[in-house]
Write a structure and sequence with these properties.
Blueprint: H1 17-30, H2 36-45, H3 58-67
Helix pairs in contact: 2-3
Length: 74
């Protein structure tokens, strides 16, 4: 199973720690020079879904940033 869609342990976060690490790295690299829409499209192109399994869009990305305390620089 690909890391992008791996299931977590029971009672944990919705995805594995490696999923969050990879998604956060992609976001941090692109945030300085890309819009939320562009970042969401890049995550979709890399076959990452949101933690709940949906496609990324700018609103879901904004919510993810706030939920995971990655809002610095927005």
């Amino acid at each position: 199973m690909a890391i992008q869609n791996a299931l977590p342990a029971f009672g944990g976060r919705l995805k594995t720690d490696e999923y969050y690490l990879q998604v956060n790295q992609i976001i941090n690299v692109l945030r300085g020079h890309s819009t939320l829409r562009v970042i969401a499209q890049h995550l979709n192109d890399q076959h990452f879904t949101t933690p709940s399994g949906r496609a990324w869009n700018r609103m879901r990305l904004s919510s993810y940033l706030k939920t995971n305390d990655l809002t610095k620089g927005i």
